[in-house]
Amino acid sequence: MSWIREEELKLSWIENLAIKVIKQGPIPRHVAFIMDGNRRWASKLNIKRSEGHKVGFEKLSEALQWCLEVGIQEVTVYAFSIENFKRSQEEVDTLMSLAREKFAKLLEEKEKLREKGIKIRVIGNLDMLPKDVQKTLAEAMLLTKDNNRSILNVAFAYTSRDEITNSIKTIMQGYEDNELLPEDLTDTLIDKCLYTSECSDVDLLVRTSGENRFSDFLLWQKLYGQILHSGICSQLFSIIKDVMCIKNP
């Protein structure tokens, strides 16, 4: 399954109409997705959790294509929380295998990424990941670093608590190295030391499972727009519902 489903995405007349209508109004610059509900969906259908995660990626791919269609410049996806390492080893191994497969596919699509001008950023505590996964993620970021039309941030091995802790450690090191003074400590300095330091403010946050919690995602960052909790599992999630809410960021 491709990350960029341009050839596969066939829009109905109502979807094409929705895109035209949406483009007439203000479009959020940055949309963030908490893509969850995969395991619950798999349990409901009595299928393997691994299948739920695979279908979740397919819906993510569809969501990314919709974002491109309507002109959203930056998308952040909460793909893997540090808390996910507490799941069974079998499930963690499955998720790492899925990451290997999908980012390898991303590298194969370098011409599409260049054509669309898509830059890939992976944000999180990447040292916690297997070395081969780290290497693949680094290659994806290096490959797309000069693309400048749109940005896909993938939060992987990420939590806000870890992000803030890492920021504080970086600042403490600055004090130890005599590169900072006490009066230098500001919220702006903390911002600059976050994994998300290069990201713009989020205008719209979408959680696909209907849960009313942030799950340790972007807790420090300013959220200026709407929060949408879809009451539908991500695999059954109709992207048109997200797109329609974009009209009023």
UniProtKB/TrEMBL annotation:
Is this entry keyworded Lyase?
no
Q: Which reaction does it catalyse?
A: n isopentenyl diphosphate + (2E,6E)-farnesyl diphosphate = a di-trans,poly-cis-polyprenyl diphosphate + n diphosphate
Q: Which InterPro entries match?
A: UPP_synth-like (IPR001441), UPP_synth-like_CS (IPR018520), UPP_synth-like_sf (IPR036424)
- A Gene Ontology term for the protein's cellular component: dehydrodolichyl diphosphate synthase complex
Could you provide one GO biological process annotation from this protein's UniProt record?
A: polyprenol biosynthetic process
Enzyme class label: transferase
Q: What is its EC number?
A: 2.5.1.-
Q: Does the keyword tRNA-binding apply?
A: no
Listed PANTHER family: DEHYDRODOLICHYL DIPHOSPHATE SYNTHASE COMPLEX SUBUNIT DHDDS, DEHYDRODOLICHYL DIPHOSPHATE SYNTHASE FAMILY MEMBER
In the record, the note on similarity to other proteins reads: Belongs to the UPP synthase family.
Name the record gives this protein: Alkyl transferase
The organism of origin for this protein: Chironomus riparius
